[in-house]
Write a structure and sequence with these properties.
Blueprint (H helix, E strand, L loop, with lengths): L4 E7 L2 E9 L2 H14 L5 H7 L33 E6 L5 E5 L15 E3 L2 E9 L13 E14 L2 E6 L8 E8 L2 E9 L2 E2 L8 E15 L15 H12 L1
Parallel strand pairs: 6-9
Antiparallel strand pairs: 1-4, 1-8, 2-3, 2-7, 4-5, 7-12, 9-10, 10-11
Amino acid sequence: MAKKYRYRIDGGRYGGELAVGSVSDEFVHYWAPKIEEAGAHEEFIPHVLCLSEWDDDEDIIAESPSIMEDTNEIPGWYEVDDIEHINSAYADGGFTAVSVPTDGSDDFGWDENEIETDGYCLKGREGAYISTDTEGETPEGCTPVILFHSSEKGSFASWFVDTDEPFDENKLVYSIVETHLGEFVEDVWYDKELLEANYDYNDSMGKSYEAAVGWITDKWRDEYKDPEEEDLSEYWAEYDDELES
C-alpha cells in the first residue's frame, strides 16, 4: 500500500569532489613546505593538473619529484584516490525536504513549502587528516598522500522518504567524513532507516580547486564501514537521549 507522503531530501548547495591518494614520499617532502609558505594555488595545483595525460606540460615544475614511485603521469587528479573518493555536499550546509508526488512521477520537482533543517549529526569518521611536518624521515606508520578537491556549487545526492506521517525534521540523521580540506555528508537516515543516495539529479559547477600534501597517520584514520553492518547502538542511544532532553 502506497504511503501518504513522499519527500526528497537534498543536501546543501555547496560541496564537491575530493580525491585522496597515496603518492611518493619524495613528492610530499618537496611540496609540503612550498604549499605551507606560498599556498597551493600558485604552483602546486597547476603542476598537478598538468600531470594529467590530457593536459600540456607548460606549468610543470621540472624540479618536482615524480608524483608516483614509478611515473610522473596520472590519468587525472580524480583517479589518485586509493584512500578516499568523496562527491558530496559540505556537512555544514544543512538539508532541504521537498514534498513530491507519492507515485514517483515528479521526484525532482519543487514545492514552495520546502522544509529547511540542519538534521542531527549521528557520528563522524576521520577520513583524511594530514601532518605537514617535513623535519627528518617520514615516521613509521604514516602514508604520504595528496588531497585534491574541486569545490563546487549545485546539487549533489538526494534521498527519498516514503512515510504515512508529515515530515519530522527530528527524524533526519546523517553522518560525516572529516578531512583536511573539509567535512562532507556521508550517510543519511530517516526514522533510523538508512536511505539510499540518488545521484540522478547531480549537477554542479566547479568554483575552485583546493589541494594539500602530507602524511596520514594510518592508525588514526577510520575506514568506511557499511552502516548496516556496523554496531551504531551507542550513537542511537545518544540520539534518543538528545530527543528526550
